[in-house]
Design brief:
Number of helices: 2
Shape: globular
Structural class: alpha+beta
Largest sheet: 5 strands, mixed
Radius of gyration: 14 Å
Strand content: 25-35%
């Protein structure tokens, strides 16, 4: 079944921050999947990256820097930096900006 977003997200940001229509780009939103971010179910699409699904659901803090513990999130968006590195299905340091969503994925901050 479909999972729901956090109630505050619906209240303050609407149902979703995902771009549904664009004057130039085409989005394939055919294959809906459910991924789990720290145990919370998130609706995603199989052809989008984990980072895109998390941002669409209102999650922008993917971790913290090791030294000063400052928030880290989406930075380069092309897999060159490690700002978006997260634990995916038990594997550390997965760059979620270039990793596509699959049904049932377990994503955690590390």
């Amino acid at each position: 079944g479909m999972c729901i977003y956090k109630s505050w997200l619906k209240k303050y940001r609407g149902d979703c921050m995902r771009i549904e229509q664009h004057p130039i780009l085409k989005f394939d939103h055919e294959d809906s999947v459910e991924i789990y971010f720290e145990g919370k179910c998130i609706n995603a699409y199989a052809n989008e990256t984990i980072a895109a699904a998390l941002v669409a659901a209102g999650y922008t803090e993917f971790g913290h820097s090791s030294h000063l513990h400052r928030p880290r999130g989406l930075f380069c968006g092309i897999g060159n930096c490690a700002s978006c590195a997260m634990r995916v299905d038990g594997v550390d340091n997965v760059r979620v900006c270039v990793t596509k969503c699959r049904q049932g994925m377990q994503i955690e901050r590390q």
